Amino acid sequence: MNEKQIAIIGGGIMGVTLAYKLSQQPGLSITIYERGAYLGGLAGYMPYDGVRMDRFYHTILSSDMSMQNLMKESGVDDRLHFTETKQGFYDAGKLYPFNTPVELLTFPPLNIIQRLRLALQIVVAQFESDWRKMDEVPVEDWLVRVSGRGVYEKVWKPMLRAKFDTAFTGVPATYIWSRLKRMMGTRQGVTSKEMMCYLENGYFTLIEALAAKAEGQGVNIKLNTAVEKVVIENGRAVGLSVDGELHPYDMVISTLQSPILGQLVPDAPQNFRSQLLDQEYLGVLCPLLILNRSLTPYYVVNITDQRIPFTAVVETTRLIDPKHVKGHHLVYLPKYLAPDNEMARWPDDKVKTEWLGHLKRMFPDFQESWITEFIVQRARYVEPIRPMGTSDQIPSIKTPVDGLYMGNTVMIYPDLGNGEAVTRYAYKVIDQVLADLKTAPAAAPVPVA
Ligand SMILES: Cc1cc2nc3c(=O)[nH]c(=O)nc-3n(C[C@H](O)[C@H](O)[C@H](O)COP(=O)(O)OP(=O)(O)OC[C@H]3O[C@@H](n4cnc5c(N)ncnc54)[C@H](O)[C@@H]3O)c2cc1C
User: Fold this and answer.
1) Using CA positions, which residue lies closest to atom 27 of ligand 1?
2) Which one, 111, 116, 188, 403, has the greatest CB density within 10 A?
3) Measured in angstroms, how far is the CA atom of residue 13 from the centroid of ligand 1?
4) What angle is formed at CA 409 by the lines to CA 388 and CA 341, rounded to 5 degrees?
5) Residue 1, pLDDT above cutoff 70
6) Element housing 31 (H / E)
7) Is the CB of 384 under 6 A from ligand 1?
8) How far is the CA of 293 from the centre of ligand 1 (A)?
9) What are phi and psi of 348, to 5 degrees?
10) What are phi and psi of 382, to 5 degrees?
11) Each residue of 388-410: b (16+ CB within 10 Å) or e?
12) Is 281-384 in CATH node 3.90.1150.10?
């Protein structure tokens, strides 16, 4: 009778992890609301030719232990495969390997001094442990100071452009520093081989297994159910509005990206709501080419040529064994988009013409007859943009609205917003929720007539 009713908004990896873990606690009744037809959100899948394929490319690093533990708990760890992956660099019309220390120290686009400075940057990042210090330094200043202007223009600037489009002017050094630390965690031994992992049929395999466990623990999952509003009365979240009806809850946990949550809380304190609505995000335009043969020997090819609209060639079937995707070869060609980039409005036909034109110039042997399908995937809210020195403005798990909690990638800082960081953050949300439930005053006794 005293069960606490908890609603989780969003059935991505954060929402499903929260539901799975919280439903192991006694006295909690959990419901997930997901507006899509499937769980998974950004880590969701696309059915094709009788198999599931990741909507967006997703890799799991060998150092992603929180994800791997969840795989063990949900019994899908036998479908996790470790593979050595290779990276390439496309510069001035040529493709170069960019993996081992030897390849780095002989990387033709740079001279010997520049190569040494690039190596130094990677080493310096490993020894730096104070992210707050990095947060005060503009990324360009940090990179130019250690690597020099030449390496910045040739290597780092294209990488920043790849991730932030044009929006990297106010970005702190924390971003590249976090990325270098994370990527070095995948290197093994003196040969520095890069080991990555994939789950058969993508992240969704884990999400589905966790959701099944959660349902076994009593979680109610409502798909195709968009929350229209968090109902707030006297400063307290009392439930959700769905199809115009009130669904009452004791507690609401949002896993939505901040501007989406901002739209659902018109009755929250105005400064909190503005903070949510004003949070800027990069979007992504990410065509997936399904090919009948492999395009490159690399898992990722980084591109320095600014005329090419996509910023990497990600051939996930250099990581995933093609036998798990019916022998197809999968190539993703992403372009992250600043909020004002008009490419977000390009129709699919235009994207296809532009993308293929450039792909043919990059790979002169490439033939259109290799293409089985060209599918354009898009998402508006992908990567939060956090300007320098604003880490004190990160929203708290416990919002100013009583009973309303939140967890999303804006709050995962200085880590990058990937599955590993998201699942680790879910545990922080759970700790906060459980601590508050423990100290919550007992409900007022119902007056006896
Ligand atoms: C191109 C790309 C590549 C990536 N590569 C990697 C990678 O290699 N490795 C890695 O670990 N991570 C990667 N990521 C990041 C990873 O996908 C995200 O960090 C993770 O999926 C975020 O999960 P989430 O649950 O926080 O958010 P989301 O997945 O966004 O989940 C939020 C959910 O809320 C739902 N929702 C929205 N509005 C409502 C509403 N009103 N009512 C109900 N439900 C609603 C949405 O439908 C969605 O399912 C990549 C992402 C992209 C886009």
Assistant:
1) 12
2) 403
3) 7
4) 65
5) no
6) strand 28-33
7) no
8) 29
9) -55, -40
10) -120, -60
11) beeeeeebebbbebebbbbbbbb
12) no
Q: Is the peptide bond before 334 cis (omega within 30 degrees of 0)?
A: no
User: Which SS3 state, helix, strand or coil, does residue 134 take?
Assistant: helix
31 C-alpha to ligand 1 centroid (Å): 19
- Provide the residue ranges of all domains of the chain, joining segments of one domain with +: 4-58+202-279+386-439, 100-191, 281-384
Superfamily of structural domain 4-58+202-279+386-439: FAD/NAD(P)-binding domain (3.50.50.60)
Token pair belonging to 189? 């031994």
Averaged pLDDT, 176-200: 74
Q: pLDDT (tens digit, 9 = 90+) per residue, 41-72?
A: 999 999 999 999 999 999 998 889 999 999 99
**By C-alpha distance, which of 38, 51, 36 is closest to 330?**
51
Whole-angstrom CA distances from 426 to 16, 43, 178, 272, 409 are 9, 16, 20, 21, 11
Residues 6+ apart with CB under 8 A from 288: 46, 53, 330, 331, 332, 333, 373, 374, 375, 376, 377
pTM exceeds 0.85 for this model: yes
**118/252 Cα distance (integer angstroms):** 47
Structure tokens at 207: 């999400």
Q: Which of the pair, 105 or 14, is modelled with greater confidence?
A: 14
